[in-house]
Amino acid sequence: MMYPMYSFSLSLKLVFTQDTLYLHYGKQYLRDCYIEGSVDFIFGNSTALLEHCHIHCKSAGYITAQSRKSSQETTGYVFLRCVVTGNGGEQYTYLGRPWGPFGRVVFAYTYMDPCVNHVGWNNWGKTENERSACFYEYKCFGPGSCPSKRVTWARELICDEAEQFLAHGFIDPDSQRPWLAQRMAIRIPYSA
């Protein structure tokens, strides 16, 4: 099966329980999207930037299952200026777990409501994942953002570390041949 190398989405609405959004291959930019689910509902091994998205957790589970296979891969998910909400319950969902041993996920400037478990992240029942998974947060806020209570193997990034994840360059690093900048300049119709 052939997968597109790059994808660009604005105002997408996805609602399922498990495996809602399969970010399997290439590079994706999603903005102003609504994504709802329960278990590993954003998963795969692509390089993806989700900006200004609303992530809604329907029931107990895990938001992400990123499957980076080695520390040399540049894949990972960045949630930038997003909102994570739930159904009114407290501490029933995790930000993610590593589907691959080197899973990489960053939540930055994101509001988290009480549905997010205070420990934040899960090792998928494999303590060896704690040495290799890269789970980060940066300047998140809200009752579900509890840096002092997070698992010890996840980290709050400092400014210099976070910089690489806070711009479109994370998914579009080649300034000589940009793909995202070209698509952002295209006028997207409100209806087809």
UniProtKB/TrEMBL annotation:
A Pfam family that the UniProt record links to this protein: Pectinesterase
**Pectinesterase catalytic domain segment(s):** 16-172
Alphabetical GO biological process terms: cell wall modification; pectin catabolic process
Annotated pathway: Glycan metabolism; pectin degradation; 2-dehydro-3-deoxy-D-gluconate from pectin: step 1/5
Q: Which domain of life is it from?
A: Eukaryota
- What reaction does this enzyme carry out catalytically? [(1->4)-alpha-D-galacturonosyl methyl ester](n) + n H2O = [(1->4)-alpha-D-galacturonosyl](n) + n methanol + n H(+)
Q: What is its EC number?
A: 3.1.1.11
Q: Which Gene Ontology molecular function entries are recorded, alphabetically?
A: pectinesterase activity
The listed locations are:
Secreted
SUPFAM superfamilies per the UniProt record, alphabetical: Pectin lyase-like
* Gene Ontology cellular component terms for the protein in this record: extracellular region
Main location (coarse class): secreted
Q: Which UniProt keywords apply?
A: Aspartyl esterase, Hydrolase, Secreted
- What InterPro entries does the record point to? Pectin_lyas_fold, Pectin_lyase_fold/virulence, Pectinesterase_Asp_AS, Pectinesterase_cat
Catalytic center at which residues? 40
Q: Which family does it belong to?
A: Belongs to the pectinesterase family.
Q: What is this protein called?
A: Pectinesterase
Q: Which organism is it from?
A: Handroanthus impetiginosus
